[in-house]
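TA notes, week 10

Several of you asked for a full example with nothing omitted. So below is the full record: structure tokens for the whole chain, then the designed sequence directly under it. When grading your own attempts, check the secondary structure regions first.
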């Protein structure tokens, strides 16, 4: 994937150089086409690729484990205590182990993953605001 990103950045750099260095010598049609790809299409594609990679990365348990509030939950899920429901599902392979958190905490609709991300982001903002104001820590 890194090679793909380097190739895209190289194409973008060449396109920008072409647009800026040869602006006066290009005919109007070439200017428009180069400007469209450089300033319009490339940023859109870049955002789409980055968003897709982020959505794929958040499906992994290792992503959830990096958060200080979730690391204890992941340890419990991987541990020997079969009391929590998540541990029971994880240990018995009732959910895929590499994406156990994601499978249980998103709905199965088209926009389920996106709505779950928005909900968690708004909860994180509330937690950060409560901490900054000296309020109770809500986790």
């Amino acid at each position: 994937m890194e090679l793909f990103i380097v190739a895209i950045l190289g194409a973008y750099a060449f396109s920008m150089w072409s647009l800026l260095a040869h602006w006066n010598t290009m005919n109007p049609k070439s200017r428009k086409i180069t400007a469209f790809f450089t300033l319009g299409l490339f940023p859109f594609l870049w955002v789409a690729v980055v968003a897709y990679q982020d959505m794929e990365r958040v499906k992994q348990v290792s992503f959830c484990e990096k958060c200080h509030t979730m690391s204890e939950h992941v340890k419990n899920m991987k541990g020997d205590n079969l009391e929590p429901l998540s541990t029971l599902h994880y240990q018995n392979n009732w959910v895929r182990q590499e994406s156990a958190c994601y499978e249980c905490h998103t709905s199965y609709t088209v926009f389920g993953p996106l709505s779950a991300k928005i909900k968690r982001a708004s909860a994180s903002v509330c937690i950060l605001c409560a901490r900054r104001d000296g309020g109770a820590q809500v986790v």
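The mean pLDDT is 76. Use that as a sanity check on your answer.
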